[in-house]
Each structure stands twice: as C-alpha cells, then as structure tokens.
C-alpha cells in the first residue's frame, strides 16, 4: 500500500490492501518500458512517480542572518543509472566530481593596520588549471540532468493525469446455463 502505483492490468496485486493508486494505460508511456513499478527512480519522490534528477542549491533567509540555511544541490542519478535509457536521454560522459573549490582570494594581515596579502601565483595558476578542466564537464553534467528533469516532469504529469486514488472494481464470473438434449426416447404414436 502506502500510495504505491499499480498498473491497471495488475490490479489483483493489491490483494486486500486499499491504499494504492491505479494507473490507466498510456500509448505515450507504455508500462513495459516506464512501469509501474518505477524501480529505476532514486531519491525522495514525494507524491510523484519518479524523483526529479536535479535540484539546484538554494538558501533560505538573508545572507549574514544567523537563521539563514543553505541547502546544497541534490543530484539523484549517476551516468550509469537505468533512468537515462528509460526516459530516452543521453547520459553525460562522466560525473565531474567535486570542483576545485572556490577561487583563491587575497587575504589581509592586520596588526596596527591591515595589509593586503596577495595569492601566490602558483596557487592561483593551479586552481585555474583545475577549474578549466572541471567546469566544462560540470556544465555538461548539469545540462544532461536538466534535460532528464524535463522528461521526468512530463512523465510525472502524465502519470498524475491518468492515476486514480479511488475506484470501484467489479470482479465477477459469468455463468451461462443452457438446456441441451443429449438423449431422447423415440416418439410414440397414439390414436
């Protein structure tokens, strides 16, 4: 139960449990390829059939505010996950991994007065070289995740439009009886 989605052709799988959503068939998203079950989905789905691929980082509250909360980006799928083929999206060549960190910035040394301390040339050059390699891979990865997001959103909208939380199923057996003469006695003539 727990709101799980069932294919309409497999409604008997729910048994006596009543907490299911019934999904009607679709020509655009055949069950043989897309499910249910949606076992290729990863991450928190909420009320959706399939979890979104990428949620960008964001923060709540004013910057510098003690109550400000930063939420990092969420990436639910890796390049080798089955969802890419199910949704028909070309996966990125590779996961770029973590970036080289933030750009080195000059510091300050303060005693009676402050003096700017420049970033050593070698430190900045090493960071820039690593960033120049990482950034195009990261951009390609995010572009692929956004394309996957679009496909997942369209799919989830379609699933929501053809799923039902309440329905009635009439399951019966039809019995037809006919009287058939299989043997009879010859007729008798009386006068």
UniProtKB/TrEMBL annotation:
Residues 93-103 have a biased composition (Pro residues). It comes from the Bacteria. Residues 88-107 are annotated as: Disordered. This is Uncharacterized protein.
């Amino acid at each position: 139960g727990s709101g799980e989605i069932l294919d309409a052709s497999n409604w008997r799988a729910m048994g006596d449990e009543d907490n299911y959503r019934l999904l009607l068939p679709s020509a655009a998203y055949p069950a043989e390829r897309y499910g249910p079950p949606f076992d290729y989905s990863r991450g928190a789905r909420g009320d959706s059939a399939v979890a979104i691929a990428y949620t960008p980082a964001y923060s709540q509250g004013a910057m510098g505010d003690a109550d400000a909360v930063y939420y990092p980006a969420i990436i639910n799928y890796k390049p080798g996950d089955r969802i890419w083929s199910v949704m028909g999206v070309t996966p990125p060549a590779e996961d770029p991994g973590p970036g080289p960190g933030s750009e080195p910035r000059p510091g300050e040394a303060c005693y009676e007065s402050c003096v700017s301390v420049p970033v050593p040339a070698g430190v900045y050059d090493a960071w820039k070289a690593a960033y120049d390699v990482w950034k195009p891979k990261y951009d390609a990865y995010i572009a692929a995740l956004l394309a996957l997001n679009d496909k997942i959103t369209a799919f989830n909208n379609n699933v929501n439009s053809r799923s039902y939380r309440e329905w009635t199923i009439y399951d019966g057996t039809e019995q037809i009886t006919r009287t058939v003469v299989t043997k009879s006695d010859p007729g008798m003539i009386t006068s």
